[in-house]
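A common beginner's mistake is to predict each chain separately and then try to dock the pieces by hand. The better habit, illustrated here, is to supply every component at once so that their relative placement is modeled jointly.
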Amino acid sequence: MNIALSEFAPLSTEIFVLTMACVILIVDVFISEQRRIISYALSLATLLVAALISGSMLDNETAVVLNGTFVSDPMAALLKTCIFLITIGVFMYSRSYLVARGIFHGEYYVLGLFAVLGMMVLVSAHNLLTIYLGLELLSLSLYALVAFNRDSAEASEAAMKYFVLGALASGMLLYGISMLYGATGSLDIAEVAAALAARGEMEMIQIFALCFIVVGLAFKFGAVPFHMWVPDVYHGAPTPVTLFIGSAPKIAAFAMAMRLLEQALGGLSADWQDMLTILAVLSLAIGNVIAIAQTNIKRMLAYSTISHVGFLILGLIAGTTEGYSAAMFYAITYALMAIGGFGMIILLSRAGFEADQLDDFKGLNERSPWFALMMLILMFSMAGVPPTVGFYAKLSVLQAVIHVDMVWLAVVAVFFSIIGAFYYIRVIKLMYFDAPLSEEPLKPGAELQVVVSVNGLAVLGLGIFPGALLALCNAVLA
Amino acid sequence: MDFPLLSVLIWLPILGGVILLVMEALGFPDIRPTALIVALATFLISILLYTHFDTTTATMQFQELAPWIGAFNVNYHLGVDGISMPLIILTTFTTVLVVLAGWEVIKNKIGQYMAAFLIMEGLMNGVFAALDAVLFYVFWEAMLVPMFLIIGIWGGPRRVYATIKFFLYTFLGSVFMLVALIYMHLQSGAFGILDFHRLPLGMTEQILIFLAFLMAFAVKVPMWPVHTWLPDAHVEAPTGGSVILAAIMLKIGGYGFLRFSLPITPDASHALDWLIILMSLVAVVYIGFVALVQEDMKKLIAYSSIAHMGFVTLGIFLVFTLLDKTGSTQGAALGMEGGMVQMISHGFISGALFICVGVLYDRLHSRQISDYGGVVNTMPVFAAFMVLFALANSGLPGTSGFVGEFMVILASFKANFWFALLAATTLILGAAYSLWLVKRVVFGEIANDGVRQLEDINKREFTILASLAAVVLLFGLWPAPLVEVMHASVDNLLVHVSASKLPHEAGLALLGAGN
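With all components supplied together, the output reads:
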């Protein structure tokens, strides 16, 4: 196994983030509680530099290195850049929350960076084991993060559930991978695809492998019927962690689906398309309908995530470049909306008070018209009302689905998005039409104000000029 | 003309609205004059559309074209013809009145109120000017947002129910249109509305697309039986909201039929015109009776709006019967032009009636007919206006209400005696509910102390009502300027509609089946 030094160039982002995560871990040990902000600043700087590095790799040629285990292609570069930017948002939203609750520890950022590293490995995987490796690094960091506030019984319960179910799903995935290895004799994604194509004929073991892999994927996405963990974990985890789980990992999950389904199992697309159709329709239906019954906004957003995942999967079902690029656009923009939605909860919360009930949004327009407007934009974007970016995400997915003559699926999707519109506009109703429960003016820190405003305006701005990002999503897959 | 007139008409009020929001946030004491200036400026600029409009051509004028979303081949393409231009001027004119109507009445967050109306004005202008389907859809949906807030924040006691019903109903209608638009995009490779006009489509496709459009536009018009959101929305909306709803939003449904349904799916429209005519006649007759029994003034006018909009759709969809019967586009133009005149005229009259109710409501805080009586004794000037608008609403010759109704009834006579008979019942029903309303509210003895203490309208209210009265009378006595601008476009549309889009053999087979 001779690996030339030049092979490490495509890994520069991963190496940088890993090094910095370790540096921050060590630095954090030696700084006093008052100067904890150094770890925070270092984490942000790491992500920013990483975003610049991977952003500069957008035009690079596809390179498969390290004996075929790692791939650096334009898709990976774009997705990583988005993951970094989203995570910067996550960290900036979180600080004031963590400080106010006395859990402003360096571990949050170190674990967050390791989760980011896991996502990066996942995104760039070119071997089934690399996928598993990335997934586990991501998942283990997230399990720990959910339990981060160790004094909270709710959070510990959520972490336990997440861990048990997550381990089960990882097992499923691994079992599927092992069968695939048995069937094709390789773990390399390109070789698996070639072996499947060479065989031509369908075998039972391939179908079994596919089933287990789809189950593992569906769990990570939180698609129905493998969604049971989503509301409980979102609800139980501290809000900054919910914010994290609900955003960037969706982009990584999309990448995982691309690597596994499109690149490795593309030959079986007719089979996984049927499976995904069931998952997508169920997710759209159950996510949207159950969200209506929620009174806790974290749970509501959890069910809303499930329905969005259903929409995202529709793009994968189309099975065309257009569909994949639509799904990618959906994943990226959804992450952007999700951090905004959960970020608003942080904005409304203060020490000793969690603003995670829908009623806490009552009369927000009286208390702060600006933040109400930002939440209005976010909610309409999630509902898919133009001129917000959520509309174009839905438009591009619908277009991909209709293009492959599945008009009925598009009709089902828009039908459920009408049902979905109800609970989003209910939030707006609470903010604008109801009297506030407390007259206390909102005084969020400057940092939080900036990040909420940038987030809301980005959702609106990308809605007015969506062309560049759409073109980018097309270009990296072409 | 190189000046981007349509873009200015769209973005000036939106920008004005944003400025108002900022001014309110910064704590300016009085932002109403700014709102009025923006609304007036937009109205004056829109007059340029009329003065520079070339009435001899049916091609799109004042066109602007710029690439917008390359990935979908979506363009920022604007342009107006004789169908959309009058509606834009109606929009800008009405917005000025709405700003004035909310002047003293709205106490709570007046900056947001005025901003919502200005932003909506821009979006509505965008709906009428858009020549790209995605651009159209964006404006069409975005328009719901300010209206949703207007009803929900400044509305009456059941405002939340009404506004959510309004939003979901219209959203329900429009998403299926989106699916149809995407389908046509994939067939034609572009999102241009004019490309869709030229797109050949098979009969099954046409029927499905027609039905998708019907869901969107029928909800908006609203046609029986999907009209139930309108009375709720009207009753709960503040006066300005009701005026915009009645005067313009409903027209967007009618406009949609003219811009999308008829030219894109002419054969399906032909095959299903009986459905629309049936729904329209039900609206005219049944909803007319429903209006008669209303106790609430706003509800009564809301139902009368539905009946009048039934006339619009009737006039528009009579074309096929007329084309079959007379074989010429000349006769068929009558119904369609009648429908369009009716749209514009109803915009003025229903807007005026809602403002009249608003004037009364501001004083006595009741919309119940039974709370009034003998208003003429204390508010003579107001009473004169209200009687005029009620008469216009019932189609009195000399008012704009007469012109459209008369043209449509005339066209239905040419088409089918029974259509005409049913349509003509509106002359009786319309007169009945309008005049009975006036009789109970305006005339008679002074009913109670509340009415005794009423003060007549002030200068601001007088200005609003007088300008509306002037327009209603102007177009009633001299409708030519209005009909002239739409003539070329209507003729062009009729020629387009009378040509089948079906592949040749299928067209012959259909004719065979028809015989």
